[in-house]
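Human:
I keep going back and forth on a fold encoding question. Comparing notes only helps if you start from a blank page. Show me how you would write down a chain together with its backbone fold. Write it directly below this note and I will take it from there.

Assistant:
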Amino acid sequence: MGVIGAATVGWFLLKTDDLSPFLYRGGFFLCAAATVLVVVAAAHPRTRLSHLFSARPLRWLGERSYGVYLWHWPVFVITRPELDVPIDGVPLFVLRIGLTLGLADLSYRFVEVPIRRGRARATSSARRRGWRRAITAVATATVLGATGALVAS
């Protein structure tokens, strides 16, 4: 059932847009019902979708999804094609995704996790290590994005 739900949601993503009359004549309800099938199947420990969603990269992304949600908009706003950055298309998309994921990971590690563990106040040496790691992560994401942009162009 979960695979059918996932295929249905995929169909909606690929074949409809905000002006599709079908959506306003029951399509949103069908998409919501298909999404429920996916969630129910993913929540059950013995389904294929549960194993798929338990994959390490998806768990990593899920742990940082709030950060991705928060960071994607500022990153996309300050990387406008041909206005803020001299690239466009796939290279720009790769740069934006890399920056968004890098910033989401940093905020997860240095904001969310310490707050959850009750260690929001770090020692000065821990702060220095944190800043070094943060600078290294942002620099790595920037270099990877710029390299992708250069290779693609």
